[in-house]
Amino acid sequence: MSRRFLALHLPDLATARIRRAEPDLPEAPLATWETSGSRRLLAAVDAAAAAIGLAPGQALADAQAIAPNLLLRPADREGDARALHGLALWARRYTPLAALDPPEGLILDITGCDHLWGGEAALLGDALDRLRRNGLSVQGAIAGAAATAAALARARADAPIAVSGIEAALAAPLPLGPALRLGAAELEALARLGLRRVGDLLDQPRGPLARRFGKALLDALDAVTGRRPHSIQPVQPPPELSETLDLLEPLITRPAIEAALDRLLAGLCTKLRLAGLGARRLALLAWRVDGAVQEVAIGTGQPNRTPAHLKRLFAEGLGRLEPDLGFERMALEARATDRMETGAQVSLGLGARRDMAALAELLDRLGQRLRVRRVAPVASHWPERSVSALDPQAVPPPPPPGWAHPGQPVLRLRRPKPLEVVALLPDAPPASLRWQGRSQRVLAAEGPLRLEPEWWRAQGREVAGAERRDAYRVELPCGTRLLVCRGGASGWRLHGHLP
Amino acid sequence: MQPPPPLPAPPDSAPLDQPTVLAALRARVARLEGVGRARHGTDPIPVAEGIPLPGGGLARAAMHEVAAVSPGAAAAFCAVLLARSGGTVLWIAAGGSEGLQAWPPGLARCGLSPANLVLVRAERWADALWAMEEALRCPAVTGALLVAEDTARLDLTATRRLQLAAETGGALGLVLRRDAPNPDPSAAASHWRVGPLPSGGAGHGLADPRWQLELLRARGGRPGGPWAVTWRASSGTLDLEEAEAPVVETRRARRGR
Question: Which residue of B has its CA nearest to A357?
Fold first, then answer.
């Protein structure tokens, strides 16, 4: 089956954004400018400015001489790119494969998607309508190759829909500038040779063209004639499974959104069950009426397809959605899935397996709101390094020998606290210390256990807070047992509580 | 729910077997109260040989409170009980508890292996309570500990919720809080007070730790103690000392003054 591509060309995205941000701008030509070296050039112009002969790349001074009433704003390339990316996300309502065609185009792979909208013409019309209603001027085209569609969209304003297989014939009458997106210097060189349209280039022998203008021109030419179809890079990889919901009335309230989520989850979980899969990462996408797309993503530790559990995980994220004027379309995508045993096997499984699933679900729920971790024992004598955090769903390795030696406290202070300690000699064990507001004699002190930092890890720099220290386990007359350490510069510190 | 088993025959047909009757009645009451609905073991968790407790130990599917006289002894006591619950255990700590964190190597000394331990940190007290409730509700969790901040409010409603959650899931719930003279009313099944005792070691070397346990309140039982116990990490047992503990200062003694 041949692929079908829809290209959208948004020539005044930059200026439309400015008009949108400043609604009370007067009716006058609008342009953005940027500096190139020491020159100030126009970066983008709107339709009114283009009508009086202004074009991107023109010197700012010339433009102001031509149109004294020209409104000027500094160009914001990054903002434009973000806006285009946002539009690409929005365009995923038509197809999961939406790609950027910078600086001002989008390419959608609509293969097999058009029937959902009642044909290609209806789809194209819907897309153009919605964008125009939002104040963007847009041209579109549908063709059998991505570059051909893009060239048609740029060069023709009549929204053509071309059948596949005649790309070369379609491209032939198009002017070179918009069709191949060539620079001014190249265009001029070609024009001097009398080459103004794509068809003129197609008639030329390829060898001399390549020698004169380089491989890039031939690549562009091959792409636009469909001889070498190039793949598009979607803004987001297509989901493995997805479920969408189009809404007649925009959703604004939380209960309405939750009800929509319920329906999406029920549908997606059925698809997952039929495919024998469980979701690992899910994203809820919500298209707002004004074209913004919002996303809430969750992850699970074990593949899961229980709607109730997945809904609980979304509970936190739904609060971050900003419906504003309402959501008109919602989609639930399974971004990552894993194989999962089918229902019969699970229900016949032993209690232990059901418990495992229950634990995984509990840890998912807790992990959405809190810091949940397991601990992996690490073979290290340096206390701060003898434990490392693990994912809660991971299985910790067995402890190395000597890991839980008798001198370990049950509670450690995250930041050791200075302690007033009296020792009879500089290197002697503590004789008394100040605890709970009064000085207490030390009944027994075990130690010292001299700890040296792991110098082989430091790699020439001091490890933060790592300093040689002598650890003592002390017991006070009331029976309280503490782990106190003497550091070189930091003095005595309380490190933990012993059982 | 299964129908309750028939009671033993009336006394005129055979001599009354009092222990059997009592055991059957206890089982029936326990079923009525919904204790022990969990899939895993329902036998109570033994504390120490010789300490009289209703049912022979700490009931599972219930919430117990431990008041800490000193953090180390009480945390170790809780770790021992959690380890004896025999499955996955959640250690839930709320935000600013003095920057004290559970130290897995030390907990492993108390029998709580890192393979069974999940640590949870909550910034807010409300989150910690929520996590505790969710954990207790889960049938795959055999024990959960909530370390309460000093300023945390743990009132009757909160403890009752935790108690109900524990009855649903069947886990052993423990709340570790600092010992206060006038604790909030609580719906916990039992209320303990754990403090350290001098171990008797002198000079160099510490002997096995000794703790003073006090059962301040128990549902279906009498308060008891104080008992002096010694924790033997090598054998994993709490040994009750025969002699009456050298009472440091119990709450009842204080109240009696």
Answer: B140
Strand partners, B233: none
Residue-by-residue DSSP string for B37-77: -SSS--SPBP--TT---GGGSB-SSEEEEEEESSHHHHHHH
* Closest residue in chain B to residue A497, using alpha carbons only: B72
- Which of A353, A362, A472, A482 would you mutate first to test chain B, the one with the most B CBs within 10 A? A362
Contact B103 A409 (CB under 8 A): yes
pLDDT digits (tens, 9 = 90+) for A346-378: 444 445 666 778 888 888 888 888 888 888 888
Nearest CB to B72; choose among A392, A415, A497: A497
Rounded-to-integer distance, Cα A498 and Cα A496, Å: 7
| pLDDT for the residue B257 | 39
Element (H or E) spanning A343, and its range? helix A343-348
- The pLDDT of residue B66 is 92
Distance from CA of A464 to the nearest CA of B (A): 18
Yes or no, beta carbons of A411 and B102 under 8 Å apart: yes
- How much is the pLDDT for A491? 85
Backbone angles phi, psi at A103, to 5 degrees: -90, -15
B118–A374: do the CB atoms touch at under 8 Å? yes
Question: For chains A and B, what is the number of CB pairs under 8 angstroms?
Answer: 184
> Per the domain annotation, does A377 fall within a domain?
no
More confident residue, B245 or B155: B155
pLDDT in tens, A67-121: 888 888 898 888 888 889 888 888 888 888 889 888 888 999 998 888 888 888 9
Q: Which of A371, A387, A440, A497 to mutate to test the interface with B (most CBs of B within 10 A)?
A: A497
Cα dist from A371 to A141, A240, A316, A368, B176, whole Å = 50, 29, 15, 8, 20
Nearest Cα residue to A283 out of A325, A251, A313, A308: A313
Answer with the one of A289, A321, A344 that is the final residue of a domain: A344
> In terms of domains, do A254 and A216 share one?
no
The Cα A204–Cα A195 span in angstroms is 9
Q: Judge: A415–B115 Cβ closer than 8 Å, yes or no.
A: no
**pLDDT surpassing 50 at residue B32:** yes
Boundaries of domain holding A209 = 1-237
Q: What residues in B contact A444, CB-CB < 8 Å? A: 199, 201-206
One-letter identity of residue A53:
G
Cis peptide before B15 (omega within 30 of 0): no
Say whether pLDDT at B7 is over 80: no
Give the distance from residue A262's alpha carbon to the nearest chain B alpha carbon, in angstroms: 22
- Structural domain count of chain B: 1
> Whole-model pTM?
0.65
| Per-residue model confidence as pLDDT tens digits over A467-488 | 788 889 998 888 889 999 988 7
Which chain B residues are Cβ-neighbours of A477 within 8 angstroms? 198
Tokens read off for A241: 């499974």
In a domain, B112, yes or no: yes
Are the Cβ atoms of B100 and A413 closer than 8 angstroms? yes
Residues of A in contact with B102 (CB under 8 A): 410-411
Interface test mutation site (partner A, options B70, B77, B91, B103, max chain A beta carbons within 10 A)? B103
**Average pLDDT by stretches of 10, chain A with 499 residues:** 86 86 85 88 87 86 89 89 88 88 87 87 90 87 89 84 84 84 83 87 86 85 81 79 86 90 91 86 88 86 85 86 87 85 49 74 86 87 84 85 84 87 86 88 86 72 68 89 85 88
Cα(B228)–Cα(B239) distance, integer angstroms: 8
Indicate whether A400 belongs to any domain. Answer: no
pLDDT number for residue B131: 92
Q: Is A494 helix (H, G, I), strand (E, B) or coil?
A: strand
Most B CBs within 10 A among A382, A410, A474, A493, hence the mutation to make, goes to A410
Task: Respond yes or no on whether the N-terminal peptide bond of residue A448 is cis (omega within 30° of 0).
Answer: yes
CATH number for A45: 3.30.70.270
Domain around B139: 45-256
